[in-house]
Amino acid sequence: MTQLENVTVQAQANVYFDGKCVSHTVLLADGTRKTVGVVLAAALTFGTEAPETMEVVGGSCRVRLAGSEDWTEYAEGSSFDVPANSSFDIEVDERFDYICSYG
Amino acid sequence: MTQLENVTVQAQANVYFDGKCVSHTVLLADGTRKTVGVVLAAALTFGTEAPETMEVVGGSCRVRLAGSEDWTEYAEGSSFDVPANSSFDIEVDERFDYICSYG
């Protein structure tokens, strides 16, 4: 099971899209911020500010980056990058557990 | 903001009641397990195995312990205890962020 060690976790959750996406913020020892989260069955569009790397730690999803017409499926163990100030469409059939890194 | 420091966080979420409750498991340095989670607007019944202490770190809830007829409201900064092998009814109007400790 994927885990992040020697970190600080913020107890208040981040809730998006009426709870279709819930995450908790994690601070690494060096101050780097990540989030661990889950997207439940849904079709959503997320915007980015910083560039993001989404690492799939459970389940799967289909992703279409802004400006692309192609959907790509990502399963556990894979990851995808999203540019800064962009967006991506995501479709989840069951659930998609992730670690999101920024910048 | 309440946070847990020097911990390990498991990246896969715990999802209950179709996502009305989502938590992440946290391991303290001494091996103690806690969960940080959120309950969204819902009326639910949770069962316990180990005794639980629920610390309200955001939002509020109303709770009725098994065997009681009384509902008690808990707001941020308060906590409630649930015996082992028991259950409690919980009503949340907006959201209820918690840290759950076991045993």
Automatic annotation (TrEMBL), chains A, B:
InterPro entries listed in its UniProt record: Ppnp, RmlC-like_jellyroll, RmlC_Cupin_sf
Keyword Transferase listed: yes
Enzyme Commission number(s) of this protein: 2.4.2.1, 2.4.2.2
Catalytic reaction annotation: uridine + phosphate = alpha-D-ribose 1-phosphate + uracil; thymidine + phosphate = 2-deoxy-alpha-D-ribose 1-phosphate + thymine; inosine + phosphate = alpha-D-ribose 1-phosphate + hypoxanthine; a purine D-ribonucleoside + phosphate = a purine nucleobase + alpha-D-ribose 1-phosphate
Function: Catalyzes the phosphorolysis of diverse nucleosides, yielding D-ribose 1-phosphate and the respective free bases. Can use uridine, adenosine, guanosine, cytidine, thymidine, inosine and xanthosine as substrates. Also catalyzes the reverse reactions.
Record family assignment: Belongs to the nucleoside phosphorylase PpnP family.
Protein name per its UniProtKB record: Pyrimidine/purine nucleoside phosphorylase
Organism of origin: Nocardioides marmorisolisilvae
Lineage: Bacteria, Bacillati, Actinomycetota, Actinomycetes, Propionibacteriales
Gene name tied to this protein: ppnP
